[in-house]
Amino acid sequence: MNTLIAIGVLAVLVLIAEIINLRKLVIPMTIVGLLGILGYTVCHIDVEVSYYNNMFITKKFSNAFTSLFIALTIFLVALSKDFYQTQFSKIADYISLKLFLLMGAICMVCFGNMAMFFLGLEILSITLYILCGSDRTNIKSNEAAMKYFLLGSFASGIVLFGIALVYGATSSFDIAEIITITSQGTLPIWYSLGVVMIIVGMLFKIAAVPFHFWAPDVYQGAPTLTTAMMSTLVKVAAVATLYKLSFHLLRQMPEGYTTAIVVITILTMSVGNIIALRQDDMKRLLAYSGISHAGFMMMALTALSTSASNLFYYAAAYAVAGIGAFTVVLAVTKGKDNQLIQQFSGLGKRSPIMALVLSVSLLSMGGIPIFAGFFGKFFLFSQAVDNGFITLVIFGVINSFISIYYYLKVIVTMYTQNEVTEETQITVPLSYKVVGIAAVLINIIIGLCPSILLGLFK
Amino acid sequence: MENVIEIIGIEKYIYLSIILFCIGVLGILYRRNAIVMFMCIEIMLNSANMLLVAFSTFHQDAEGQVFVFFTMAVAAAEVAVGLAILVTIYRNIGSIDIDKLKNLKG
């Protein structure tokens, strides 16, 4: 709770700094503040308390994810300075929106009451609609914002209807009470219907396959930094919330649910990867690869009681790799109006550091050993094998191979074509270099000692 | 005092909410005017509100009605943002027809 309040105060301070004309201080202040809050959260990771009549519950699971969100926000804020260079007068708005989005994400993983969950979801979505459309004169950004708004509010409507039905069946919004009521006696049919609607709404948010069609368009059209936020912070927050909801609500569900989840997981992994093969736009490629990664993360839903640490590890590995990849996309496509893969050609000569960052990030996403992505996949697969989901693992392995193909395509483009002309010369700002190298280092460190993250749940 | 829900029956409220919800969903899927789509989203949210209020009376529990206030506030904020997005689109292309937004393809 203190974490949430501190972030709220920080966001208001950012807005005040705008009023008293201290815009230059906004980013350093936010980064220092967030680092302090991150330290506080990590130190109190074992504290399990509930606040305000179980509205807000901190547990190891939610504390760990809160820390991950804060760390990701630090990276995204650090990238903001150079990204919003041309709109520096609005910097305080963008930073405070990012902080409010972080608050929404934290409410989503720490909820103890359906009201808190819904509010968190909406805080996250509404700030994201604004950030998507923040490039006002660009019609692509407008279109992305509109599409995301329509689909996002559609999903929120479904979630809300689901919450109403669950309330009707259990006469409570409190998760603990809902669990007690569902464990004793039979429930009206509304309960299952409501839970299915909540889950479907969340599947929209994580872009799982029957509900994924909005993601590539929105990712492509939104400003690149917002895309980075969507594909790392928001996706991880939505998956964690889906996991927590399933953990609490799906205990009394019939066998058919597991089958449905397995089918959706396989579809999400395969469709995302197969469509990604023929993309030539980097942001769309990362969008489809994000869809398939959502599928991998959904594997954790097949073993709800044991997979929290594996999910956290995979989410952290994916998000860090995503930050690295998007940092390079930001650096390379600065001032260009498309993000075609050809723009990355010869990057190995033009900027060796950025090429290295992108290679490591993509290889980690593909699951090459020593990088964190490999162990993330390994833990999820081995846990699925232990629980007897062999088909799921076979599809997972096949998909890992497919994904390596298109990641390697980008890497090959970077290192083979080497005409360096005046036009293609790029200057990479210091902040991008720092963030990129930090992301690579974190990736390798958690890849070499996975126990750092897995130990948090022991 | 006799409960109005007992006279009418909770099922009828549920059916009405589901019908309203489906009207909202179909409207979003079939209409192409952005304003009408916004109205359909409102219908979806309000059908859920009505269901919450009906269940709240059914269970004799005030929590559901409090939740409705949250939902209304959230819906208002959402539509405010949506209309702002719509205004920026209108400034750029001079139309609010969703079918004219076809710049993003892969």
UniProtKB/TrEMBL annotation, chain A:
Subcellular location: Cell membrane; Endomembrane system; Membrane
A GO biological-process term: ATP synthesis coupled electron transport
E.C. designation(s): 7.1.1.-
Transmembrane annotation, as ranges: 27-49, 61-79, 99-132, 148-169, 189-213, 225-245, 257-278, 285-305, 311-332, 353-376, 388-408, 434-457
Membrane topology designation: Multi-pass membrane protein
Listed Pfam families: Proton_antipo_M
PANTHER family, alphabetized: NADH DEHYDROGENASE
Subunit and partners: NDH-1 is composed of 14 different subunits. Subunits NuoA, H, J, K, L, M, N constitute the membrane sector of the complex.
Name of the protein this chain belongs to: NADH-quinone oxidoreductase subunit N
Annotated source species: Myroides pelagicus
Gene that encodes it: nuoN
UniProtKB/TrEMBL annotation, chain B:
Keyword flag NAD: yes
Catalyzed chemical reaction(s): a quinone + NADH + 5 H(+)(in) = a quinol + NAD(+) + 4 H(+)(out)
Domain of life where this protein originates: Bacteria
Keywords: Cell membrane, Membrane, NAD, Oxidoreductase, Quinone, Translocase, Transmembrane, Transmembrane helix, Transport
GO biological process: ATP synthesis coupled electron transport
GO cellular component term of the entry, any: NADH dehydrogenase complex
Pfam family, one: Oxidored_q2
Signal peptide start-end: none
GO molecular function: NADH dehydrogenase (quinone) (non-electrogenic) activity; quinone binding
Membrane-spanning ranges: 12-30, 35-55, 67-90
Membrane topology reported for the UniProt record: Multi-pass membrane protein
Transmembrane keyword on record: yes
Top-level EC class as recorded in UniProt: translocase
Principal place of residence: membrane
InterPro entries hit by this protein: NADH_UbQ_OxRdtase_chain4L/K, NUOK/Mnh_C1-like
Subunit organization: NDH-1 is composed of 14 different subunits. Subunits NuoA, H, J, K, L, M, N constitute the membrane sector of the complex.
Protein purpose: NDH-1 shuttles electrons from NADH, via FMN and iron-sulfur (Fe-S) centers, to quinones in the respiratory chain. The immediate electron acceptor for the enzyme in this species is believed to be ubiquinone. Couples the redox reaction to proton translocation (for every two electrons transferred, four hydrogen ions are translocated across the cytoplasmic membrane), and thus conserves the redox energy in a proton gradient. NDH-1 shuttles electrons from NADH, via FMN and iron-sulfur (Fe-S) centers, to quinones in the respiratory chain. The immediate electron acceptor for the enzyme in this species is believed to be a menaquinone. Couples the redox reaction to proton translocation (for every two electrons transferred, four hydrogen ions are translocated across the cytoplasmic membrane), and thus conserves the redox energy in a proton gradient.
HAMAP family: NDH1_NuoK
Stated name of the protein: NADH-quinone oxidoreductase subunit K
